[in-house]
Amino acid sequence: MLSILSFVGFTVLVAVISYFATRNTNESTSDGYFLGGRSLTAGVIAGSLLLTNLSTEQIVGLNGSAYESGLSVMVWETLAAIAMIATAIFLLPRYLKGGLTTVPGFLAKRFDTTTKTLTSGLFLSGYVVVLLPVILYSGALAISGMFNVSELLNVTQTQSIWICVWGIGIIGSIYAVIGGLKAVAVSDSINAIGLLIGGIMIPVFGLIMIGNGDMLDGLSVLVMENPDKFKSMGGPTDPVPFYTIFTGMMLVQLFYWGTNQQIIQRALGAKNLAEGQKGLLLASFIKILGPIIVVLPGLIAFHMFSGGLEKADDAYPMLVNKVLPPSLLGFFAAVLFGAILSSFNSVLNSSVTLFGIDIYKQHLNKEADEKTVVKYGKLFGVVLAIASMFIAPMIANAGSLFAYLQEINGIYSIPILTIIVVGYLTKRVPAIAAKIGLLSGCVLYIISQFFLQPYFINFALEKASTSGITNASELALIKANAYPHFLDIMAILFVLNIVIMLIVGKLKPRKEAFVHENTKQVDITPWQHTQKVGLLICLLVIAIYIYFS
Predict the structure, then answer these.
(1) Which of 37, 44, 84, 279 is most buried (most C-beta within 10 Å)?
(2) What values do phi and psi take at 268, rounded to 5?
(3) Range of weakest confidence among 52-61, 278-287, 481-490
């Protein structure tokens, strides 16, 4: 009962604070609703960025990967810091200079309206079919398991998942659809503090338990007894081989932190460029500490359970139940609930923005005033939320949620990144090249990952079986070498798409060179220490890899 009361209390507290912090924001205008009135400061931006990114599919999934493969999976966290620095230095100044509300909005100016609409459609398709349902389902699994909802309400496990999905979806929709970006960002910032505290508690209590009361002794025992788990460079059979850092991994990170509407919308709401850059750099520094929350617990679980768990994704929940005192369970569940809500309502708010600005205003009602655009954006958000709540419980058999999410996202991430990069770095590549780049990127990736990859892997495994190879490690190596890693495929398609677009641009260039105009929506004077701080953070990331190599 105490844990439930503390859970409800902390959740209500966040809602009340968010309400009072946003009640004076004018939500009837596009900037007010979609970008928080372009008033977000560095701390709010950093907190919202971090918590939008951090949710149950990552906390549970990455710790499960760490349980299996060790420290090498930290690349998902550490390399994100470098991607955020690149965004702060290269992309954000251009976004704010153009007064963008959505990333596809730039594509309308640089190419044409059709390119913008196609890109918004790709974003929305990915959000509706994959991202929102995965967030809801993984969150429902965590909350249902933590409070044992099926037993508490005397329902089946499936029914408890449906109840939790709809509970998370309804509360998240209230934040995102009614409150707009500022409500999302403020609640994110509060929950970020709680999640950092709660997330750090798990490895701290785990190390204390391993060290019989001494955390440092626990860390020493963990490292000494599991040296193979503390290698930063992944091998060929690991989820992220080290060499992929220099192929597709950096591209994935640049897309996610620099062009993904769900994420970059926080920085687009900055009151000025300096605040946006400081927010991104602060988030990038904290991101380096991310493995403490999303990797180290998986290593501790491997030691505590002697690598004997049937499912790697059970590592984090079982560790929480083992090391966390009952008095703190409600608080931790509340901040985890906040992380789930954050990811859900952030994606939903971005979807509302994309629909309202890029589809409704552009194609359905060109004469609509800002109040009408916000109104119909909200209605679309309600429909989208309801649809995702129905879809979420149906993905129970999708396999590893984290892996499923990363691979499916590749369909649209690289094509979109390609046309944005080419759009900013060239002046005469035409709109037809962008359309070809989007189409070729999506189609070639689908052919590669869902047709060619299964064929080559099955062929290699059948050949190994015929040769009498049954050793699990040998089979894993054969499977890994049978077809290029999906991150390598992304890098190949990125280069190929750029070449295609440049060739089209050479054969059929724009009549007039593109000029990136300054809309003067906000002050775009950069923070004077951006490059120095960015360099220091990059050196810190390199030092971490060298130390654990």
Answers:
(1) 84
(2) -65, -25
(3) 52-61
Give DSSP secondary structure letters for 135-182: HHHHHHHHHHHHHTHHHHTT--HHHHHHHHHHHHHHHHHIIIIIHHHH
Q: Give the burial class of 360: count Cβ atoms within 10 A of its Cβ; 0-12 exposed, 13-18 middle, 19 or more buried.
A: buried
**Using alpha carbons only, what angle is made at residue 420 by residues 418 and 423, rounded to the nearest 5 degrees?**
105
Distance from C-alpha of 457 to C-alpha of 72, rounded to nearest angstrom: 24
Q: Check pLDDT > 60 for residue 279.
A: yes
Residue 290: what are its φ and ψ, rounded to 5°?
-55, -40
**19 contacts 180 by C-beta, under 8 angstroms:** no
Which ranges of 305-450 would DSSP assign to H, the alpha helix? Answer: 315-323, 326-353, 370-391, 401-425, 431-447
Burial 392-413 (b: 16+ CB within 10 A, else e): bbebeeeebbbebbbbbbbbbb
Residue 135 CA, chain-centre distance (Å), reads 10
Query: Domain map of the chain by residue range?
Result: 2-136+167-410+528-547
Length in residues, the chain: 549
Q: What are phi and psi of 12, to 5 degrees?
A: -65, -40
DSSP category for residue 426: -
477 C-beta neighbours (distance < 10 Å), count = 16
Closest CA to 126 of 490, 431, 388, 393: 388
Report which of 520, 514, 509 is spatially closest to residue 110, judged by C-alpha positions.
Answer: 514
Contact 279/266 with Cβ under 8 angstroms? yes
- Which two tokens mark 376? 């119909």
The owner of tokens 């550490």 is 78
- pTM as predicted: 0.82
Interatomic CA distance for residues 54 and 48, integer angstroms: 10
Q: Tell me, what amino acid is at 251?
A: L
- Give me the chain's average pLDDT, please: 82
pLDDT over 60 (residue 455): yes
Token pair listed for 307: 């690598």
Question: What CATH number belongs to 2-136+167-410+528-547?
Answer: 1.20.1730.10
Cα gap 370→197, rounded to integer Å:
40
Residue 188's closest CA among 357, 349, 329, 59? Answer: 349
DSSP notation for 225-244: H-GGG--SS--TTSSS-GGG
DSSP one-letter string for 298-317: HHHHHHHTTT--S-GGGHHH
Query: How far is the C-alpha of 184 from the C-alpha of 111, rounded, in Å?
Result: 31
- Using DSSP's 3-state secondary structure scheme, residue 548 falls into coil
**Each residue of 9-18: pLDDT tens digit?**
666 666 666 5
Compute CA distances 232 → 76, 244, 290, 299, whole Å: 12, 13, 14, 13
Kind and range of the H or E run holding 520: none
Separation between Cα atoms, residue 342 and residue 52, nearest integer Å: 5
The closest of 341, 349, 435 to 127, measured between CA atoms, is 349
